[in-house]
Structure formats: C-alpha cells, structure tokens
Automatic annotation (TrEMBL):
<dbReference type="InterPro" id="IPR003594">
    <property type="entry name" value="HATPase_dom"/>
</dbReference>
<feature type="coiled-coil region">
    <location>
        <begin position="129"/>
        <end position="178"/>
    </location>
</feature>
<dbReference type="InterPro" id="IPR052048">
    <property type="entry name" value="ST_Response_Regulator"/>
</dbReference>
<dbReference type="Pfam" id="PF00072">
    <property type="entry name" value="Response_reg"/>
</dbReference>
<protein>
    <submittedName>
        <fullName>Response regulator</fullName>
    </submittedName>
</protein>
<dbReference type="InterPro" id="IPR001789">
    <property type="entry name" value="Sig_transdc_resp-reg_receiver"/>
</dbReference>
<dbReference type="Pfam" id="PF02518">
    <property type="entry name" value="HATPase_c"/>
</dbReference>
<keyword id="KW-0597">Phosphoprotein</keyword>
<dbReference type="GO" id="GO:0000160">
    <property type="term" value="P:phosphorelay signal transduction system"/>
</dbReference>
<keyword id="KW-0175">Coiled coil</keyword>
<feature type="domain" description="Response regulatory">
    <location>
        <begin position="10"/>
        <end position="124"/>
    </location>
</feature>
<dbReference type="InterPro" id="IPR036890">
    <property type="entry name" value="HATPase_C_sf"/>
</dbReference>
<dbReference type="InterPro" id="IPR011006">
    <property type="entry name" value="CheY-like_superfamily"/>
</dbReference>
<feature type="modified residue" description="4-aspartylphosphate">
    <location>
        <position position="59"/>
    </location>
</feature>
Length: 422
C-alpha cells in the first residue's frame, strides 16, 4: 500500500498507552510517514516547541495533560496546526465537543489500518491544496508589490488619478449628451432609417413592418438599460468617498461579500445551471481586523468582479472567492478559469489596459446578466477607481494554479487589497 504524501514534516503521536502509540507509529511508517511519539500532552508540547510537525494524533484521556488541554495549548502557539483525535470514547456529545475545537477527524479505538490510511491520505491532499494556495497568494503578493513599485516609479503620468477621472467624467458626459440628444446607438438610427424607407402613409396614419417595429422596441430596451448603467457609473465617479467611509470589521466584510455572492447566484441561477458554474460559500476569516470602507461601493465593485468572472468562465467550472491578510492589507481574491479558445484571460501585456475606459479584450460575450450596473467597458475601470479611493490596490492577471486538478491550470485572479487599520 503506497501513499503519495505531502507531509514534509513528521507526525507526532500523543498517546499514554505504549502498545497503541507504537502500533500507530508502525502503521504510519508503513505508509511512508515519519512518526514521533509522546506518552502525554506535556511531553508532546515540549517536543512541539523543538520541532515542526505536519500533524498531531492525540488521545483524549491521558495523565499529566489530557488531549483537550494539549490541543488548546498547541493551537494557542500554532493556530494552523492539524489534529486527529484517537479515542475509545464514542459518546456523541464528547465527539461534538472535540470537533468544535477545529480538529481534522475523530478516530474510534481500536485503530483500523484502512481507516488510518484513508485519513492520512485526506490529510496529505489537504496539505497539498493549502500549499498550492499559499504559493498562489505569495506569487500574487509579489506581483502586486512589483506593480506598486512600478506605479510609484511612473508617478508623473500614471498616478495622476484625478486628472484621469476628470477626463473619464468628461467622456461619459459627452456620451450621455450624445445619447439623449438623438445621436443614440447605431442600431436605433438604422432602424429608424428602415422605417422611413418602408413606411406606407394612409391619410393621417403610417403602416410599418411589424418585424422592424419589434426590433426597434427591443433595441430601445437595451439603449435605456445602457443609459441607466451610464447614470450609475457617473454617480460613483462623482461620489464623495472621504465622507462615506465607515469603520468595518471582518465579520461585516464577510457578510457583505457573502450577500453579493448569494445575490449573483440567485439572480443568475438559470445562467449558472446552464453553464454548470458553481460559486462556493465564502469561508469566514479567522483573523480579526478593522478597515475604513464605503460599504455600498465595496459591495458594488465586488459584484462587478463576480459578474466579470461569470461572463468569461467556461462551462463546468468553479468561481473561487477567498480572503487573506498579509503586509497590513486585507486581500479579497476572485479566481476563475477561462476558455483559451475564446479569450486569453488577462495576459501580462494587457493587465493595465483592461482597467482603461472602454478597452475590450475580447469580442462580444453574453452581457445580459442580472445585476450588471456599470456601462459596458467601464466595469474594471470603476473597480480600479474605487479601490484607489480607498488607498488600496486592484490587480487582475493570469496565474498558474496547481490546486484545481492533477495538472496546473492557467486561471484569472482578480485581487482587491485594502489597508487594515492599526
């Protein structure tokens, strides 16, 4: 029986019965896993001080220091540690109490070889995925730092944010004026010209082709929708952010993100089912933090990132959302696969361009998703604008992901970094 494990460090077996701990150690070593042993929790803690362990297998009832106290002591110093409890106690209340400590699994004595094998295999896969995620986050942070340094270096022309936004406001106002003044979308003009060419006048009335009229009505709906999104785009560009920031904690941010995810999933449920796209629940962060944000704007731009990923995700894929904390920043990550036959993701030479107003990376895609708020071609521009107003960083680019399947996959990773208050 061979295991393909990711356990870079040995495991520690904390068990007061000699025959049990030696049996588990022999089984583990038979699976290719190095194992140390300790007769009680106190000695186990001393060993953990001197050495790093991938996993702790812990008995509950032990002299000197029992399993509960050992788990709490290790978690206090090493909160990310993994635990498997081994116990002869099968009382449901005790098992529930132990599981609330955040352990990986609970094994009933006597230890079954096959059961131990399965648990170690799951542990191995879990560690592999966590390591892949850590590498992904680290690579992303390095890219963000490099990008920030480049922005500072090019400060004279790239970070003149207000000037760029004033230009964008002027452009949008010109577009808006053009639409309302009758310049409109080309389709409307073409349809009206067709009506003029085919209209038949009968005394005081005209008769038109019903097909053309129906097309005109349909295009009128999309023009109105475009104008509404244009209004929303102008509203957020003109917003007074400094007077709208509120102190927000980690629970509030999590709830805000989770509501956006559910809203997108519910409003586009038919679309998600059709393409078989999943958006798993967002995990609650373990760290405590506070940030100053405009909650309404943050919710809107997070919604924009989710819709963007939903548009370009291929069938039978998953959109992952997770948060992390590093270097004094809260990082909100949205990760999705893409179909390279229709869109190249966000190549390195396009990372800055996709945030520019009205830049299009790909041809037409389905843009009639529920919840879209911003004018076509301005979504990522507004995300970048809002995050900069929060003194944060927005980045979107391709990365190589090792956590999705057996082979590395190129995915798009969008990351919003917001500064945490001291």
């Amino acid at each position: 029986m061979a295991l393909r494990l990711n356990l870079h460090n040995p495991i520690l077996i904390v068990e007061d019965q000699k025959e049990n701990r030696e049996l588990i150690a022999r089984l583990a070593k038979g699976f290719g896993v190095d194992a140390d042993i300790a007769p009680d929790g106190k000695i186990g803690c001393e060993m953990a001080e001197k050495k790093e362990y991938s996993l702790y297998l812990v008995d509950l009832e032990m002299p000197v220091m029992n399993g509960f106290d050992f788990i709490n002591a290790i978690k206090e110093k090493k909160p990310d540690s993994l635990f498997i409890v081994i116990s002869g106690n099968d009382v449901p209340e005790i098992i529930i109490k132990v599981m609330k400590l955040g352990i990986f699994d609970y094994l009933i004595k006597p230890i079954d070889r096959e059961r131990l094998y399965q648990v170690l295999e799951r542990i191995s896969e879990f560690i592999r995925l966590k390591e892949s995620e850590r590498i992904l986050v680290q690579e992303n942070e390095e890219r963000l730092k490099a990008q920030l340094n480049w922005i500072l270096y090019k400060q004279s022309w790239l970070t003149d944010l207000e000037k760029n936004i004033d230009l964008s406001k002027s452009t949008l106002n010109n577009l808006k004026h053009s639409f309302f003044s009758g310049g409109g979308f080309g389709a409307i003009v073409s349809l009206v010209e067709m009506l003029q060419a085919n209209a038949k006048k009968e005394e005081t009335t005209y008769s038109f082709s019903s097909d053309i009229i129906e097309l005109l009505f349909e295009n009128s709906f999309y023009v109105k929708k475009g104008l509404n999104s244009l209004e929303k785009s102008l509203t957020i560009l003109n917003k007074d952010f400094q007077n709208s920031f509120q102190k927000t904690n980690n629970i509030e941010i999590h709830n805000l993100l989770e509501k956006s995810r559910l809203r997108l999933e519910n409003s586009n449920g038919r679309y998600c089912k059709k393409k078989k796209i999943q958006i798993p629940q967002i995990a609650l962060p373990a760290n405590e933090y506070n940030i100053q944000v405009d909650q309404d704007s943050l919710s809107r731009i997070f919604n924009e990132l989710l819709i963007n990923s939903l548009k370009y995700s291929p069938s039978n894929s998953t959109i992952y959302i997770y948060t992390s904390i590093s270097g004094g920043y809260l990082n909100i990550n949205v990760k999705n696969e893409f179909d390279p036959n229709s869109i190249p993701g966000i190549p390195k030479n396009k990372e800055l361009l996709v945030k520019q107003p009205f830049y299009r990376l790909a041809g037409f895609v389905d843009e009639n998703l529920e919840g879209e708020e911003y004018f076509t071609g301005l979504g990522l521009t507004i995300v970048d604008f809002v995050i900069k107003k929060h003194s944060g960083i927005f980045s979107i680019h391709n990365v190589i992901d090792h956590s999705i399947g057996e082979k590395p996959v190129e995915v798009v990773l969008a990351t919003v970094c917001l500064p945490i208050n001291d």
